[in-house]
Q: What sequence folds into this?
């Protein structure tokens, strides 16, 4: 079985990264505390804190750097792709350590300043290291060194597009040795500046007659079985194989090759929030939901008393909603409507301003006087911090729908169930009170899913806060 061994370069790069990370931390401590340090009492505290933080940084940075599949890859990568893993690791790591410092009450005596200074210095050093390596490699490759010879199997559109990319990016360090095809009539012909040097029937001979470092197969689905002997020929010679197979013509789902329960598999999925990104999103969800529940406890008590005094019935309203991939859960809100509001749904059906299966009325008569106030400031949503803590919801995501609404969705609209629903989302910040077209709402949710990033979540949260503060909640 073919295996890609972890290159020595990747291990060396990790060691250099960690050494520069330790150096960055020492520089940050000196910058903040001064070269002579603090008083003895403060120095003992700072030394203990510094040692703890340095261990945490080393562990977190190692995990985040190695977690990214592109870490340590320079060949076949553009400069921004090379820099991205380290920039992301520093950003995510700084956030994780920042939250940790808040929770353990260690944000004293300039410690947050040390963390931010460290992050800045670390970014400069690690990015500088990669730029230096990249410039050296570009220089070597411009003089004909450090190249890998690539043999392309197939002459279709994807094979040609691959060769075109290689020709346009000499810094990748790849050289097209030639093509191999199934068709004997193509032998000797030029394809995108390289010659067809063999056919699949004599593939082993081609490998023996040429210097080949990698073989890239671009194979139509119907011909997959025909390349097994060619792959085995590469295996026996220790030549790396890459397969760009057109298994399915899917417009949205992205393919990812990996291991699942110990078996190599190709995974297709449209929405992927996994790995360190998922852990960070979930960590922030738990952190903010926990802080929110504690900080809002006085508000909970005050609203509970006001709801009880102004309207008969329970303080909280619970309703079954549909969550991740169709999971049912109970959503909690402060009650803003009459107790029999759901029974009166048909009475107010004519007030609906929303197209499609959703119901939304600007002047719903079922809303209580205090309900209008708490809806205006989105205070009725506060109990959903509990749903976030349980894992039913996230801080940011599509709003959770009712089961009866989901049953009326078209197939393409059900893709919004592929992520956890959220307290806020793109629909809210784009002006939920002004969007009455159901399809437009669904497209905003899918736009969020297809373009998800942690930074985008932060942006949505940042846009939500002003809307809440100026009272642009639900009508």
A:
């Amino acid at each position: 079985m073919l295996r890609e061994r972890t290159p020595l370069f990747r291990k060396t790069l990790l060691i250099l990264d960690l050494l520069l990370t330790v150096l960055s931390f020492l520089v940050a401590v000196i910058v903040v505390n001064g070269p002579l340090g603090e008083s003895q009492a403060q120095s003992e505290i700072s030394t203990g804190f510094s040692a703890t933080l340095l261990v945490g940084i080393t562990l977190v940075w190692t995990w985040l750097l190695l977690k990214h599949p592109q870490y340590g890859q320079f060949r076949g990568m553009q400069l921004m792709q090379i820099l991205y893993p380290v920039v992301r690791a520093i950003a995510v790591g700084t956030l994780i350590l920042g939250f940790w410092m808040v929770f353990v009450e260690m944000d004293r005596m300039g410690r947050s300043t040390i963390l931010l200074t460290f992050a800045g210095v670390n970014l400069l050093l690690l990015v500088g290291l990669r730029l230096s390596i990249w410039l050296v490699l570009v220089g070597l490759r411009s003089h004909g060194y450090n190249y890998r010879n690539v043999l392309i199997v197939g002459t279709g559109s994807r094979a040609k597009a691959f060769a075109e990319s290689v020709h346009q990016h000499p810094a990748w360090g790849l050289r097209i040795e030639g093509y191999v095809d199934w068709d004997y009539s193509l032998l000797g012909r030029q394809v995108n500046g390289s010659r067809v040097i063999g056919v699949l029937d004599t593939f082993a001979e081609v490998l023996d007659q040429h210097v080949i470092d990698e073989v890239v197969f671009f194979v139509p689905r119907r011909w997959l079985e025909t390349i097994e002997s060619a792959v085995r020929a590469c295996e026996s010679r220790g030549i790396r194989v890459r397969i760009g197979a057109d298994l399915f013509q899917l417009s949205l789902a992205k393919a990812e090759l990996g291991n699942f329960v110990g078996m190599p598999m190709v995974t297709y999925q449209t929405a992927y929030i996994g790995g360190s990104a998922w852990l960070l999103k979930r960590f922030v969800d738990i952190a903010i939901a926990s802080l929110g529940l504690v900080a809002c406890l006085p508000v909970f008590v005050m609203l509970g008393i006001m709801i009880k005094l102004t309207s008969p019935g329970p303080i909280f309203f619970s309703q079954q909603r549909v969550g991740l991939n169709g999971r049912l859960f109970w959503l909690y809100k402060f009650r803003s409507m009459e107790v029999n509001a759901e029974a009166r749904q048909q009475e107010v059906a004519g007030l609906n301003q929303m197209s499609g299966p959703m119901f939304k009325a600007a002047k719903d008569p079922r809303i209580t006087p205090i309900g209008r106030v708490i809806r205006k400031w989105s205070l009725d949503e506060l109990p959903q911090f509990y749903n976030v803590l349980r894992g039913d919801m996230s801080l940011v995501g599509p709003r959770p729908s009712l089961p009866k609404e989901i049953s009326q969705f078209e197939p393409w609209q059900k893709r919004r169930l592929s992520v956890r629903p959220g307290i806020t989302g793109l629909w809210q910040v784009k002006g939920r009170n002004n969007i009455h077209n159901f399809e437009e709402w669904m497209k905003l949710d899918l736009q969020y899913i297809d373009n998800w990033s942690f930074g985008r979540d932060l942006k949505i949260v940042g846009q939500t806060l002003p809307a809440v503060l100026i009272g642009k909640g639900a009508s």
Remarks:
- Residues 77 and 172 are 6 Å apart (CA to CA).
